Amino acid sequence: MATSPCSSSGVSSSSSSGLGADAGLEIRTRSVEQTLVPLVSQITTLINHKDKPKRSDKTLQAIQRVGQAVNLAVGRFVTVGEAIANENHELKEEMSVACIEARRAGETIAKLTDVTSLDHPESDSHITIFTDKTGVVKAARLLLSSVTKVLVLADRIVIKQIITSRNKVLATMEQLEKVSSFQEFVQIFSQFGNEMVEFAHLTGDRQNDLKDEKKKARMAASRAVLEKCTMMLLTASKTCLRHPDCESARLNKDGVFHRMRLALEQVIEIVTDSRPNGDSEMAPISIYSGIKEFKNKVEGLRENLYFLSKENLSTMLEVILEHTEDFTDSAYTSHEHREHILELSKQAKMELEQLVSVWMQAQNQKTKDVMEDLEVAILKTCQCMNELKREVHSAATSLAADLLKYHTDHMVLKALKITGVEGNLEAVAEYTCKLSEQKEQLVEMCRLLRHVSGTEPLEITCIHAEDTFQVTGPQIISAAETLALHPSSKIAKENLEVFCEAWESQLSDMSMLLREINDVFEGRRGEKRVYLSLPRPGKHNANLKALKPVKLDTEEQAKIAKLGLELHLLTSDVDSETEKWEDQENEIVQHGQGMSSMAYSMYLFTRGEGLLKTTQDLFHQAEIFATEGTKLASALHAFCDQIRDDDKPLLLLEAEKLISMCRQLQITAKTSVQGKSATFTKVDACILKTRNVMTLLCQLLPLCCKLLRKNKSGNGCIKPAPPWREDKIRTGTNAHSPERRAETFGIKSLENHVTNMTFLESK
């Protein structure tokens, strides 16, 4: 379904003014949507100006300034759009038409707002905003539509970059599959590593830019597969080269290549919003989402007795109860849970029968007694569904907790490594059977957890975990068989280690996922987003031994636990402060939320949990955190330029302090160290400096919120933004190198031009 560019941008007044962009354009990314916000604000200010009989010179000047600012900004915006068109010939025609429309609409708005030189702005002799408000609305609608087209076309270039990068990765993968010598393999894998890094950066930016949380979660899952498979591809390919006649080694390698191709394909599906053969994505409905929808329909009967049929309600309950069979039919569900689920299913049918009976009666006679009976029936039905929800949650999470605890020692994996090195084929066969049983248990656990995950992103994470266990299990078996056949092979041993590490890593991720599912169920911070740090620096280098990742041991975790806890508490404080802002799309809020999410992932690292697995991950995350802090400081400076208040010097001082602290953190994160002791000291320093930045953030957010409210209430003054700086547009026309072009031409450069437009409150 297409959406107006301002439909979810928080600019509600635009719809009341009759504004809207081309209905055929769907805004899928935050950067495009947020770029339109200042433009919508400007135009809305013009259209919603108060029609007073007497207009002061100050009002007329303000209106003219807004009109000129819009026209000037659009002119420069169009210049960048035209430069993009010249760089991308396949989009030139469409982009040129959109640019012409935008320029024409901007000029029209400037003419209609040219009112300060007139003695009587409302006279019929000169058409202005006062005499032709419909003309302004038409010009505004055309402007929004054409600017949106330019942005969406520019976004296509980003998509094209990702597709091109994917194609390069695929082409190099085909070469890797066919190599027959180690020397040739090392050369091609080095190229492959660089291409994977480029692809990871492009898709990482895209993932963070996506509006749809479901697509964002699918993208994260696909990128996680590609990250893990890159290392698997290296060792599996080397094993195959060393033992070319070994069937299990070939199967092992083929499995990795196949999985990487599927993940690459899924990334492109998400980016292009398409599926092969036109198939629509039909994810199975979970019990949680089914119960939620069912309860909404039942409670809707209080407002309207006729909005759905009893057959619809009965069908919805049947679907939910069919899904509960996943629990009652499972060999891993306890007898007690199975009995309770069956009892509650039976009770739910009885409660619905009673509800339907009273509901039909209420349609015929709306007496006080009947309506009271209906309310009781609604409450009892919803209560029964809540109890069913609680029971399936308990069944799934208790099973998961037991399995994760039971398999935490990784005894089967250890036994496979030992028996493989011994060349004991019979023992390897015995332990592969045990691993297959373990895989079935974990797959069943993921399926049941999906039903109770509570949010679509967590559902997708459960599906991803299920796929990982399904695929990695057989790959471990083929790697173990290869080692058993060639027990003296160092590369076969290393290959088995890599696949076992992937299994252990997924089990560790399941512990965090279980915690998040419980958090959602209990209403805690279960939807806290953790940034993925893909790619890990050096991860895709052909010479990986020199960059072996390091994890904190138990003693080091204990030393850093207090600092981690302080960081955790600060993320909660920052979250509380950001929730107080009315405008959740505000740039300051979004940078604050991003920093809080990254700090939370760093806290999880201190506990040995989360997506940051190694010290190298942590240092990379600290760099991104510092960069985000610098962006926040820039947003604070821009905010200061818009206000006049006694607290402004204090805010500027704090912003400068933030820049200094982020610079120090970045230097610390980038400093190379060697040795266990030095690495731990660096970890400690990164966490400490992150904590200090978060402490400052806790002071900055309430100050900004107070200033914003004060200015909105009229106690302060929001002044016009400074005029356009010429160096802004020069960056759009003097880009020659590929790196500079990638930085200049695209959404970011367009975003810079639009977001610098003046915002003037209508007086």
Question: Mind sketching the topology for me?
Answer:
Layout: H1 13-16, H2 30-47, H3 57-87, H4 92-112, H5 133-178, H6 182-209, H7 213-242, H8 247-272, H9 287-300, H10 310-328, H11 335-364, H12 368-406, H13 411-422, H14 425-451, H15 456-485, H16 490-521, H17 554-579, H18 587-606, H19 615-641, E1 643-644, H20 648-670, H21 676-713, E2 717-718, H22 726-733, H23 738-744, H24 747-755
Helix pairs in contact: 2-3, 2-5, 2-24, 3-4, 3-5, 3-24, 4-5, 5-6, 5-8, 6-7, 7-8, 7-15, 7-16, 8-15, 9-10, 9-12, 10-11, 11-12, 12-14, 12-16, 13-14, 13-15, 13-16, 14-15, 15-16, 17-18, 17-21, 18-19, 18-21, 19-20, 19-21, 20-21
Keywords: Cytoplasm
Family: Belongs to the vinculin/alpha-catenin family.
Biased composition (Low complexity): 7-18
Task: Spell out the helices and strands N to C.
Answer: HHHHHHHHHHHHHHHHHHHEHHEHHH
Query: What would you call the structural class?
Result: mainly alpha
Distance between the termini: 37 Å
Helix content: over 70%
CATH architecture classification name of the domain at 554-712: Up-down Bundle
CATH homology group of the domain at 554-712: Alpha-catenin/vinculin-like
Q: In percent, how much strand structure appears in the residues?
A: under 5%
Largest sheet: 2 strands, antiparallel
Task: Choose one word for the global shape.
Answer: globular
- The parts where pLDDT drops under 50 for at least 5 residues are 1-24, 118-125, 526-548, 715-763
Rounded Rg: 30 Å
Number of strands: 2
Please give the count of helices: 24
Classified by CATH, the class of the domain at 554-712 is: Mainly Alpha
Question: How is the CATH topology of the domain at 554-712 named?
Answer: Four Helix Bundle (Hemerythrin (Met), subunit A)
Oligomer: single chain
Strand order of the largest sheet: 1-2
Organism: Indicator maculatus
Keywords: Cytoplasm
Subcellular location: Cytoplasm
Region (Disordered): 1-20
